[in-house]
Amino acid sequence: MKKFGLGAIVAAGFAAFSMGGAVAADLSTPVYKAPVVEEALSPWQIRVRALYVMPENGGSVNGVLGSDLTYSDSVVPELDITYYFTKNIAAELILGVTPHDINGAGTITSLGQVGKVWLLPPTLTLQYHFTDFGPFKPYIGAGVNYTVFFNQDAKNPAFASVDVHDTWGLALQAGFDWMIDRHWGINVDVKKLFLEPSFTLQTVGGSYLTGGADLNPWIFGTGVTYRF
After folding, report:
1. Where does the signal peptide begin and end (predicted)?
2. Number of domains in the chain
């Protein structure tokens, strides 16, 4: 009986030691967890900006020595749509309309306001986005612009009509997004458009004057970015 009792105690102790070793082994063995894979971002992005449009003053009426033109600035809303071909290369389409006064200057300053026009200047740029600065996402771009002039009104009693002709131009831009998270960010953007349309003025007597308007506006924008 004593031998049996001693053997039972030894067996129980050996089992307990084995279980303790197994538990220790389990506690020391790292648990493998599969890495979390973030869902890929959509190639589409939109921005809503407020723009300050500042044309350069310049231009002339053909045949009028010393004539010049000035233009009013404008603040307008704007929407742009961006598509990413890669993480660095994207195309951006800029949509918005902006009104401007045309004023006589130089030897025609006495004319005052010549007319008022609205511009629809859709601009397509190809961009390079830098991606090595964390939430700071700077970019540069260049592209083309086609400006449509509409709602054109002569604002001087000497003229019956004003017609600024639609035209192509080049565009340069630089800016950055500061991303708050994967989808939302704040945008700051600067563009330079090279626009020098020709125009025709009809006088109340039925004669015509022609010339060129050197608009070449700077466009400063800030707004909100959303990456789908």
Report:
1. 1-24
2. 2
